[in-house]
Design a protein that fits this description.
Layout lengths: L4 E4 L4 E4 L2 H9 L5 H36 L5 H25 L11 E2 L2 E2 L3
Helix pairs in contact: 2-3
Length: 118
């Protein structure tokens, strides 16, 4: 498909590279306004999540420095570290989901007693 279509991250549009690509773009309405806005919104979300992850990682380092300088207790550090790591886990999963890196759930084999796939 890459020979026929490419994604422009600045515009959010899929650009045709060949006549086959143009046909596919038109047939599937790949540049419908709603789809383009969704793609741009997803790119913004990815940028924001990446920035937040970086901030949380910096915060984790700052808390470690406070512990090393005896400004906080080990218990306070452990509590703060756990909270930051919980946030990081959630943020990283959400980022992976927005980037399409989370595997899809397997298809159900039956629904309402009807076999869908064997």
């Amino acid at each position: 498909m890459a020979a026929h279509l490419r994604f422009n991250s600045k515009t959010g549009k899929v650009e045709a590279r060949t006549p086959y690509g143009k046909h596919t773009e038109e047939l599937l309405q790949l540049n419908d306004d709603a789809l383009v806005q969704y793609r741009l919104g997803t790119l913004t979300t990815v940028r924001l999540l990446t920035a937040e992850i970086e901030q949380q990682e910096l915060q984790l380092k700052a808390v470690a420095k406070q512990l090393k300088a005896n400004l906080i207790t080990q218990a306070e550090y452990a509590t703060e570290e756990q909270a930051i790591n919980d946030d990081l886990t959630s943020l990283r999963y959400t980022l992976q989901a927005h980037k399409g890196e989370v595997p899809l759930s397997p298809l159900r084999k039956t629904r309402l007693g009807i076999t869908l796939i064997k």
